[in-house]
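Friendly challenge for the regulars: who can give me the structure tokens for this chain first? No prize, just bragging rights.
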Amino acid sequence: MKINGNAVRVGNVIEHNNRLWVTVKTQAVKPGKGGAFNQVELKDIRNGSKLNERFRADQQVERVRLEQEKAQFLFRDGETLTFMNTETFEQSMIDAALLGDKVIYLQDGMDVIIESYEGEALSVVLPDTVTFEVVEADAVIKGQTASSSFKPAVLENGARIMVPPHIETGIRVVIKPEDGSYVERAKD
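First reply, four minutes later:
Bragging rights claimed.
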């Protein structure tokens, strides 16, 4: 689907220079001289390289629609992740490198969305939040306030995160897998 260069938005997947790119940042620029343009930061979906590009309003850009399928994470075998389509029950195997740092937040039975283009899996979208138990947390330092300071903690999956001082070992916490940040204490 062709769109105008000034209609490119963050999160759009476009085909440019015979490669697929996801839009990371956009900035509309209206210089004093010349026509307006959209300054766009793109990230290659397959290899992660970045590119800064200018698209004019009259320039046509090919926007790509990714196929999305709901799947459930079954298990990990070395560097291979096995997922099951929740509608057809077909299993598919994806390289763990596709998830990058977020692979540590996968849990058995987790529902995810696999995005693909022409039959090739390009990304795995995890839920907005996941819950893990804290297995190690530093002691509270006297005088710290809950609103302004955080302390390091280790989750059951081995991830190191920063949590508020009131979080102790054995407490379950809600985490954002996108950036590994603490959201809240889990409601049991």
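DSSP finds no helices and 16 strands in the chain. The first strand starts at residue 2 and ends at 4. Your move, everyone else.
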